[in-house]
Amino acid sequence: MGFNCILGQERLKENLKKALEKKQLVHAYLLEGQRGLGKKKIAYQLAKGICCRGEGKRPCNRCISCKKLEHGNHPEIQWLQEEGSIKIEAIRQMQKNLQMKPYEGSQKVYIICDADKMTLQAQNALLKTLEEPPEYATMILLTANATSLLPTIVSRCQRMKLLPVTMEKMQKYLVKEKSVDIEEAKVIAAFSNGVVGKALQLLEDEAFKNRRKEIIRITRDIIDKNTIQLLERVQFFNDEKLHIDEILEILMGWYRDVLIYKDTEKKDYIINIDEIEEILYQSNKLPLSHIKEMLFIIDRTKDNFRSNVNYQLNIEVMILDLKQKAKF
Ligand SMILES: [Zn+2]
Q1: N or C: more exposed end of the chain, with fewer CB within 10 A?
Q2: Are 16 and 5 in contact (CB under 8 A)?
Q3: ipTM above 0.90 for this complex
Q4: How far is the CA of 10 from the centre of ligand 1 (A)?
Q5: What angle separates helix 120-131 from helix 88-99, to the nearest 10 degrees?
Q6: 223-238 pLDDT tens trace
Q7: How far apart are CA 139 and CA 25, in angstroms?
Q8: Which residue has the higher pLDDT, 286 or 102?
Q9: Across the strands, what pairs with 78?
């Protein structure tokens, strides 16, 4: 499997593969990127490669070190993962372990998950190891937020950024590797923002799927129902208050699709492809200029939430304004 089991991150993977093959490695790496992009998977492969006894392409997946790790009992690769903050005691313990030399010719790798959760004291303690690491030691720090780390820590690491993958790549991955049908893959890929962890979570998330269906029904009601009936739908938004950011994203995506279809009559760029009949209906009903204004209304609603306006009022105004654009 090796690095190929990680979606996207081509450049980063290529750089690491080359470095492992040529044994041009450094003592500290900092893997940055939002949750769900695969930092742990990269760290795992990097650690495996560093400890691998093979020559050429590493990890070789055949040597004793690779086999040990695959069986989950590699004594020289340690993960530091804490529920809350990472305290100085944890770093000291790690440093104590680090002083014990590994067996002849082998390496030690420490992976610190959520490194930004280290307290200031913990970071200062770690700095000493980063300044003078034993020649057999490698530290891999993982973080979604490098700005919370001391600049002196960051500057001693080789920084590597993980990036969201393209929608196309995500779709292909879901279809090929997860046996998702193409229509669903398109929807999930669009809402994953290029984060594979998020895509996998959405795939299992029935509540997300139901919310999306309900929102699409509401967009239909905006056309078909009168204002009084429509205001009853505010209850849905109240019940789903915790998910309002996602709901507004779904609404934006929806009217974006309606707009694209209205403008181009092409299905290629439609996200909500499983609801194409509904998109046809709505794009037929709504004038182009109104759809654009509906997008502005949702965008404004988002902005309003950022400035702490009353939740229900903001939703009601949005619905009434959307209805205004769907009256004929
Ligand atoms: Zn190996």
Answers
A1: C
A2: no
A3: yes
A4: 21
A5: 20
A6: 999 999 999 999 999 9
A7: 11
A8: 286
A9: 110
